[in-house]
Specification:
GO terms for molecular function: copper ion binding. The protein has about 300 residues and is of the alpha+beta class. Helix content is about 30%, strand content about 50%.
């Protein structure tokens, strides 16, 4: 009996050990399998992160490249466009000097220097005038004008003009503001139309226009018209209001060096309204008459 009970207990104990071993083996296998899956997922995740990190700079660079390249191309294109369409800087200077005689034989030396520098759109003009009549002191003026292109063949100009008249007892020096237009009018008349505003309520409008007519490649006629209107003048040496001065004429020039060295003769008809009486001057009458002379024009 005791032997039988012991053997049955041994069998049960052996069965329990076998079952426990199987459970332990199954648990170990399950844990190992889960660990392998977890490590595989970790490896896959790491690989994905590495792939994403490696690909992100490429995508970012690919995203930036199109944005930078057009900017550079646009800048280069704008520079080329600006250079080809008005971006070049030019310069021109013209000096005209002439000796004129009126009907009374009174001689006058006139000289005008006109120079400008800039592009097709923006220019700076410097204009200097010198006039010396016989038995009188010389008169000078100097203007600096900014010129801005506003339409085909037309610029708007603004600046300041300085005038000096040593024959006057007072107000020998005067400054004026200037605004006007410079360009090519119909039928190729080169035109300047300017409004001058100075001290003592001096308002005047000046119009100058001229055109070249080619007789040959070197012999050229140049009809011209110059007019000045005094709109208002309360200065000590006031001019009469209205059309104060006008001159119409024609120059004939011969270009010894094409558009460089050009002697000319000048014949014109002039009108001057005169000055009104003030405490500093006596009134003068209007006068008209022919003027003629010769001169030399230089361009460089």
């Amino acid at each position: 009996m005791h032997i039988t009970k012991r053997s049955s207990k041994m069998k049960r104990y052996t069965q329990l050990l076998a079952i426990g071993g199987m459970v332990s083996s199954l648990s170990a296998f399950t844990y190992a399998h889960e660990g392998h899956d977890h490590s595989m997922r970790m490896d896959m995740s790491a690989k994905q992160n590495t792939t994403m990190n490696a690909s992100m700079p490429m995508e970012h660079s690919q995203h930036q490249s199109p944005s930078i390249s057009p900017q550079v191309q646009n800048q280069d294109g704008h520079a080329e466009h600006y250079k080809e369409h008005g971006g070049q800087i030019y310069q021109s200077t013209q000096l005209d000097t002439q000796w004129l005689l009126d009907e009374d034989g009174q001689g006058t030396l006139k000289s005008k220097l006109k120079t400008w520098v800039g592009t097709d759109e923006n220019k700076l003009f410097i204009i200097a005038d010198y006039t010396k009549a016989e038995s009188e002191k010389s008169e000078q003026s100097l203007a600096a004008l900014y010129s801005r292109n506003i339409a085909d063949f037309w610029d708007v100009q603004a600046g300041v003009n300085y005038r000096y008249n040593p024959d006057r007892e007072v107000d020998k020096e005067q400054f004026e503001g200037v605004v006007g237009f410079h360009g090519m009018a119909q039928y190729f008349f080169e035109t300047d139309a300017d409004l001058y505003v100075g001290q003592d309520q001096q308002w005047r409008f000046v119009l100058e226009t001229e055109r070249d007519l080619l007789l040959t490649q070197k012999l050229i006629l140049q009809p011209y018209l110059e007019m000045e209107w005094v709109l208002r003048d309360e200065s000590k040496y006031a001019a009469k209001t209205g059309l104060a001065d006008a001159e119409v004429g024609i120059k004939t020039r011969y270009e010894i060096v094409k558009n460089r060295v050009m002697p000319f003769i000048d014949v014109g008809y002039g009108y001057s309204k005169g000055r009104k009486e003030t405490d500093w001057q006596t009134a003068s009458d209007s006068k008209t008459g022919w003027v003629y002379g010769a001169g030399l024009s230089l361009k460089f």
